[in-house]
Amino acid sequence: MTTELKPDDAVPDSSATVTSPTTGEPVKLFSRAWATGIAVRYSMVIVMLLVIAYFSYRSARFATPDNLVTILVAAAPFALIALGQTLVILTGGIDLSVGSVIAVSAMAGAATAKANPGQVWLTVLVSMLVGLAVGCVNGFLVSRINVPPFIATLGTLTAGSGLAYVIGGGAPINGLPPEFGSIANTKILGLQIPVLLMIIGIIALAIIMKRTTYGMRVYAVGGNRHAAEIAGINAKNVLFSVYAFSGLLAGLSGVMLASRVISGPPNLGQGYELDAIAAVVIGGASLMGGRGTIWGTALGLLMIQTLNNGLDILVVPAYWQDVIKGVLIVAAVAVDVWSSRRRT
């Protein structure tokens, strides 16, 4: 006696399906479409691992704990301005003034330290307030006067650069007390203060952007400002806050950088705004706003600093380093545009 198999008794298909990271459509696990989606979604992580593997192979100095600390110390000041830049870019704007804010804040902090020896807290406070003031000017121009972010921050970039020289009378501020150097060179739990601030800032801001209503408002304004306003979000206040926050972090970065060299150079921070924007873009944020993460920015920042460090160890000329970073930025944007079209 034989038993007939009914359709319901058929052996189920063992091939599992998952959602494609790029198209959002169901695809078979371990299929070509699935692999392509994973490669696109984690492209920067893959590139980062390849870069680390290459430099580790070429130089024994690279893959050492001391060199890791060197990379983190170099990344810390950039991390502060990159975090602020992330919030600005998430709203669809851009802040070109952070390089000048670093210079103005560093000069103001150095002048304060020279006039008030031993008052380290006052030096840091003045630098942060100066950065916050410039950020508020940017925020007011963008959110209240409706000046395009590129024009508003380009203006403060130029004005801030001149103001830095005005504070120092056209020259660096030297002869600072030794306490000024303790701001960036003091170690806590074996790590320098800027590195600790970077770690705390990344974790705290990632939680804020992921878990709080403020973070959702920033994403909403960047995604569609008109729709956000209809939903009851005060877009002007959100825009003002992100530029003010960017200026505040740039001011803190300025005093950290000045403390590292125990001096107040008026050209400090020149070109740093481009590295900050590069870190955000390489980390996967869209320049159109509404898409990006703090963790992505952290990855982009470490990518740039790892490249700089590895290329310096291999004695690659600085101009070739600029070429490599430029290609990396274009590639990151190209991947972002391509993946956006696939999702659409």
In the predicted model, the low-confidence regions spanning at least 5 consecutive residues are 5-14
Structural class: mainly alpha
Number of strands: 4
The number of helical segments is 14
Largest sheet: 2 strands, antiparallel
- Broad shape: globular
Helix content: over 70%
Strand adjacency order, main sheet: 1-2
Calculate the mean pLDDT score and round it.
Answer: 84
Q: CA-to-CA gap between the ends?
A: 56 Å
Summarize the structure.
The chain crosses the membrane at residues 33-56, 68-90, 120-141, 147-167, 188-209, 242-262, 274-298. The chain is mainly alpha-helical.
Can you give a write-up of this model?
- The chain is mostly helical.
- The protein has a domain at 63-269.
- It has helices spanning 32-41, 43-58, 65-90, 98-115, 120-143, 149-167, 178-185, 193-211, 213-223, 225-230, 235-261, 272-282, 294-313, 318-343; strands at 17-19, 26-28, 187-188, 191-192.
- The strands form two sheets. The protein has a two-stranded antiparallel sheet. It has a two-stranded antiparallel sheet with strand order 3-4.
- Helix 3 runs parallel beside helix 8 (193-211) and helix 4 (98-115) runs antiparallel to helix 5 (120-143).
- The termini are far apart.
- Residues 1-22 are annotated as: Disordered.
- It comes from Mycolicibacterium smegmatis (strain ATCC 700084 / mc(2)155).
- It is a multi-pass membrane protein.
